Prior knowledge:
Elements: H1 23-28, E1 33-35, H2 38-53, H3 75-88, E2 92-96, H4 105-119, E3 121-123, E4 133-135, E5 165-172, E6 176-177, E7 180-184, H5 185-195, H6 200-203, E8 207-210, E9 222-225, E10 228-231, E11 234-237, H7 241-248, H8 258-274, E12 276-278, E13 285-289, E14 293-297, E15 300-301, E16 311-318, H9 327-330
Parallel strand pairs: 1-2
Antiparallel strand pairs: 2-13, 3-16, 4-16, 5-13, 5-16, 6-15, 7-12, 7-14, 8-9, 10-11
Amino acid sequence: MxxxxxxxxxxxxxxxxxxxxxxxxxxxRTDWRLGASAAEAAHLxxxxxxxAARLDGDPNxxxxxxxxxxxxxxxxxxxxxxxxxxRDGPGIALYRGLxxxxxxxxxxxxxxxxxxLHMGTAQSNNPEGDMxxxxxxxxxxxxxxxxxxxxxxxxxxxxCDQTDAVGLLCVHTxxxxxxxxxxSSLRLYNEVLQRRPDLLDVLSGPYCWTKHGEMxxxxxxxxxxxxxxxxxxxxxxxxxxxxxxxxxxLPDAPDMTARQQEAIDVMSDLAEEHHAAMxxxxxxxxxxxxxxxxxxxxxxxxxxxxxxxRVLWRLWLRIPGxxxxxxxxxxxxxxxxxxxxxxxxxxxxxx
Length: 351
């Protein structure tokens, strides 16, 4: 594997960065895929059982925990390696083999929460205050202006989440479909620079992004952020077609121009061209740098039994010493946190 040294970034200059890769490049590499060792698995099971016993069945007690409350043992080195991959590597890390069948749901949550505490600070995923989001088909409509795509079974657009890094722990797999797709957003920038430099100005100018109704009364229902951002010598990218299209469709927002729509279409086509795909397995944990990578998933067919339905646990993290926040990410610097929001950790969606 060739190690690329990062160079100072500026709009209009090629991005030279370890997080620039093609799907073929990533698929051929193994440095970002980390398998659970027997020693790690055994330690995490013991640690989780001891910690869960102190919670008296209430996952919300984890909210008061500190990283020092959880000794990760040999897993600590793996967490540091994953942080390095996110900060200064390809911007993606996959941990495969968390022994879910040896853990109760509460014990699995202990491991995931402890992992997050050792990486950064968790953020609320929604106005209800879920510190661990539940990515599942909740019967929502992907095209509805106030519905989130992660609560549907539909094919989603390539996008980044509104925080530094996003983690996805696979709790249950679907009956079919639900393929995870990732792409380097820095590669997309370089492709636009080479193929469509005429779109650089519109992609580095403001788009309107919807708040999905997640706001206080009287607040403007959208905010503004460019796609391409050069911040402190780093290229930081924000992209979410549905957020942007729905934002411009709001009554008080300016209509999306033909060039803005064309730029979104070009980015989406390039993402499909350069992505890598993988099938999540139960116990997989994928982390992504939201400033250098985009992700999506294909549509899926779920199991009829409620206890078997596809579920991913989503962890939003702010991480010290990470890339500068884009205006899109900075808008949610405290997570989705409204006056009515009360932080909570639920093992089951709606429970």
